[in-house]
Write a structure and sequence with these properties.
Blueprint lengths: L3 E5 L5 E2 L12 E6 L1 E3 L5 E3 L3 E3 L10 E8 L5 E7 L3 E5 L5 E5 L3 E7 L2 E6 L8 E5 L3 E5 L5 E7 L2 E6 L10 E6 L2 E12 L8 E7 L2 E6 L3 E5 L8 E6 L10 E4 L2 E6 L2 E6 L2 E4 L20 E6 L2 E6 L2 E6 L5 E4 L7 E10 L6 E7 L8 E3 L9 E7 L9 E13 L4 E8 L31 E5 L9 E5 L3 E3 L1 E10 L9 E14 L6
Length: about 500
């Protein structure tokens, strides 16, 4: 046999965009788009994202601020729009207007949904709702941005003066009575430090208070007024009310462009190998810059217009790009398993102010959404870096039903340039005589993988070439249904051999 087989993958290490493409680990990749990393290391295409067919009550920005579940197991998803709050019945698909007021948070307690209104001047007041009794005003409820139930009391992150200029006070209701609020029932969290409270969350028998650039915990034994506030991080907080989620025994929080895993109050920088990149389309309006949410065993991290995914079981990162007109904000899970598909439904709002769509996601391949998958490997040496090698052929071990584009890219320092390539290029942008232009070289091939029986196949690419370092790319377009998915990449194989030691001073 000519050449030696070298296996590439599986890519259990996930994406690594922090280190250069030639320095990352062999089990990592430069780009993994719209693919999940399975427990066996293979890459599997993600399911599609559906648009809820029912008419949206109000166009524009929407956030899901809670779930209401009746005693008969009817689940309502609570959507907050810019000027109203609506409940979406997951059984019938019908919308119900709860209030024509802007609200920021909601909690279910004592068979009621308690809604916190956005701060406005010194006016107080919130609402309680249930599908039978409808909406009832709660005049004494403070306004704020976040809420939780802790030891049978409702807590709200509120402002000092009743407006939205200084959100660093936490107010609490009477025990087992969110209708009743005392004027002195509150505590301040580092008041006057210039930071607002972004999120309050019950975790580990305490309330975690995330400010914009710091984090505190609060707990009490007998009376809330005798509770203690302790700082747990003086530098890390949360971006907003939608940047904190809990998974099993861990908390995840996004602060600026970083995601942290909190376990036993140890803070681990989770995306150190995948720095988040700023992309802002801006053409259809933007609201909050970031959010965190769970899709099954995935943590989906939105940073402006980029979605980064970390597998909770594998700890590896990938990246998602949704199709046209799909701009989901944070997701929330329907606590009931669907009897039709045997999996949970995840509902999402829209973070774009100029859109009017709401979304639903489930781990099944029955949703029409056109999107591209892409794998870009590291640049491999396949031996000593000071030698040139010969690629005789390469191939991919796949389970695919769609046309796949295969690309091999040799990394070459100096590429011969013709005079015609220099036409129109400003002289000031040219490099040296030996390397006047940076030119990418790649060899592209494609294969139709019509595979209705879903067999695992091997695609062989016969193009040979000479290289010192080389990278591989796979791309395909899927439609979100079982006609093209799931698409699975198991591994790549290259047949290579060393040819000669480099001769130039720089190669």
């Amino acid at each position: 046999m000519v050449g030696q087989p070298v296996k590439i993958g599986p890519f259990v290490g996930g994406m690594n965009t922090y280190t250069g493409p030639s320095a990352i680990a062999d089990n990592e990749a430069v780009e993994i788009t719209n693919l999940d990393i399975d427990l066996d290391g293979s890459l599997t295409s993600r399911p599609g994202l559906a648009i809820i067919g029912a008419a949206t009550p109000e166009p524009g920005l929407s956030h899901i601020i809670g779930i209401y579940r009746t005693s008969l197991d009817v689940v309502y998803v609570i959507y907050a729009f810019a000027a109203e709050v609506n409940a979406y019945n997951t059984s019938t698909g019908a919308w119900t207007l709860i209030t024509a007021n802007a609200c920021t948070a909601a909690v279910q307690y004592n068979d009621k949904l308690w809604l916190v209104r956005k701060p406005l001047g010194v006016v107080q007041g919130g609402f309680k709702w249930d599908p039978v009794g409808g909406t009832v005003a709660v005049a004494a409820m403070p306004r704020g941005y976040s809420a939780c139930i802790y030891k049978e009391r409702m807590f709200i992150s509120a402002s000092r003066n009743g407006d939205e200029t200084s959100i660093n006070r936490v107010k609490f209701s009477n025990a087992a009575d969110p209708d009743t609020w005392g004027g002195t029932d509150y505590f301040d969290v580092a008041g006057g430090d210039g930071q607002d409270i972004a999120k309050i969350y019950v975790f580990d028998a305490s309330i975690v208070i995330f400010k914009t650039d710091s984090t505190y915990v609060y707990a009490y034994e007998t009376a809330p007024t005798k509770g203690q506030v302790q700082i747990v991080s003086a530098t890390i907080g949360a971006n907003n009310n939608y940047c904190v989620v809990e998974y099993e025994n861990n908390l995840f929080v996004m602060h600026e462009d970083n995601v942290y895993r909190i376990s036993n109050w140890n803070w681990e920088h989770a995306n150190i190998k995948v720095p988040f990149e700023y992309v802002n389309i801006g053409a259809v309006g933007t609201a909050e810059s970031s959010s965190l949410s769970l899709l099954g065993n995935r943590l989906i991290c939105r940073y402006f217009d980029n979605y980064y995914i970390i597998g909770m079981k594998t700890g590896a990162w990938t990246k998602w790009e949704f199709g046209v007109d799909r701009f989901p904000s944070e997701f929330i899970s329907n606590p009931s398993i669907s009897p039709l598909v045997g999996t949970a439904d995840y509902y999402g709002g829209s973070y774009r102010t100029a859109t009017s769509k709401q979304y639903i996601f489930r781990d099944t391949y029955d949703t029409v959404e056109d999107f591209d998958i892409k794998l870009v490997t590291k640049s491999y040496d396949f031996g000593p870096s000071y030698t040139f090698k010969r690629l005789f052929w390469w191939g991919a071990d796949l389970l695919a039903k769609s046309v796949t584009t295969f690309k091999v890219s040799p990394i070459v320092y100096a590429v011969p340039i013709t005079w015609s390539q220099l036409i129109g290029v400003p002289f000031s942008t040219l490099g040296t005589w030996g390397r006047p232009l940076d030119v990418d070289i790649d060899v592209t091939d494609s294969a139709s993988n019509s595979n209705p029986a879903s067999y695992r196949t091997f695609t062989k690419l016969l193009k040979g070439l000479r290289f010192r370092q080389v990278g591989f790319t796979l791309e395909s377009t899927l439609d979100g249904t079982s006609e093209t998915g799931p698409y699975r990449i198991f591994s790549l194989t290259a047949i290579v051999d060393s040819k000669q030691v480099v001769s130039k001073k720089v190669s």
